[in-house]
Write the structure tokens for this entry.
Amino acid sequence: MKHIIITGGAGFIGSHLVRHFVLKYPNYWIHNVDKLTYAGNLANLKDIENAPNYTFHKLDICDAPAIEFLFEKYFVEGVIHLAAESHVDRSILEPLAFVHTNVVGTTTLLNAARKYWKDRKDVLFYHVSTDEVYGSLGPEGFFTEETPYNPRSPYSASKASSDHFVRAYFHTYGLPVVISNCSNNYGPYQFPEKLIPLMICNIIQNKPLPVYGKGENVRDWLWVLDHCQAIDLIFHYGRVGETYNIGGNNEWRNIDLVYLLCNLMDEALGRPKGSSASLIQFVTDRPGHDLRYAIDATKLRNELGWKPTVSFEEGLSKTITWYLENKEWVEEVVSGEYQQYYEKQYQKRIQPNF
Ligand code: NAD
Ligand code: DAU
């Protein structure tokens, strides 16, 4: 059996990816390495927790001895690295936590891989990264793999730095690596601090829907399992040392997306048309808020034949149904410190001098 580490496998994208690999590849033994921060939840993987080719390891990726022990014990031959602090708003409040996990943690994993793989070429370190490393677009154009890095938030600066370390280990030590930079994902199991699940959950509870600034910022949305399929293809067939952009070709202004969600939620909840939209509240903008992200995924399509398969209409409908049917999951993940954190941030955002 081939032993593969997936880091951050208890988070949103990671849990979908772990399930995908465990079920599709019985000849792979998947080791899910996750610290279980507020964003990690083993309930995401309840259905596969007893699979014979799956093991969970509660570990911090910054813990070098523990990571090295895993490589040694299992003869690990692949790493798909997703563990990260992932929320831009939190990075503005607490940048060092992002440097610690995203930069130091990634480099700790690279060191372990280099130490145990030595000069092997039949192994792979795959770094799952973000389109935010490219900065912000104006109304026109797309990010390609050649777009210069221009990160503008502490989150994107930490992800850009980790991308640079991954490339540095390829060029300096010959470590076989690959990187992908993806646009905004959505789907089940996303922590409800992110736009789509936050709006769905607040609508269910009749709470205000905070839209930053004028809601004119644009994001390119991708169904999370289409991202997982792209990762699968790149892991198996991507060219070593290369970067692949992944995107949904599905741009939405935040305010248009929030109105769409309001209409879909009115229908789903049997509420009068317009009732959810009445909860919309324009609040103080995110500092340094990137205006627009849009991905050109031509390279991935031409080289590996990938394209998104789930329409936004279908994906949003599935997402809404999932959140309506999994209120206990939502209650569990937002219980404790998160609720206080959210209320405090929301109160600050409605202050005129925030
Ligand atoms: P998430 O916040 O839902 O999950 C992150 C996971 O990492 C959690 O399970 C958490 O417990 C774990 N983790 C955090 N710090 C850790 C540490 N020090 N050691 C071990 N585990 C730790 O994130 P996500 O949205 O699923 O994103 C996963 C990856 O994909 C991230 O690297 C992110 O930058 C990237 N990405 C996300 C998106 C998106 O739209 N969500 C888009 C492009 C790229
Ligand atoms: O582009 C990929 C990135 O997408 C990933 O790398 C990040 O991990 C992921 O969190 C996401 O970053 P964004 O900052 O784009 O996602 P978020 O859901 O936080 O915000 C989406 C947009 O909605 C953004 O323009 C800010 C806005 N927003 C967000 C929240 C939470 C609001 O207007 N109100 C809100 O309450």
Q: What stands out?
A: Residues 86-88, 130-132, 183-184, 194-195, 198, 210-212, 217, 219, 254, 286, 293 surround DAU (ligand 2) (CB under 6 Å). The two ends are 54 Å apart (CA to CA). Residues 95-117 form the longest helix (23 residues).
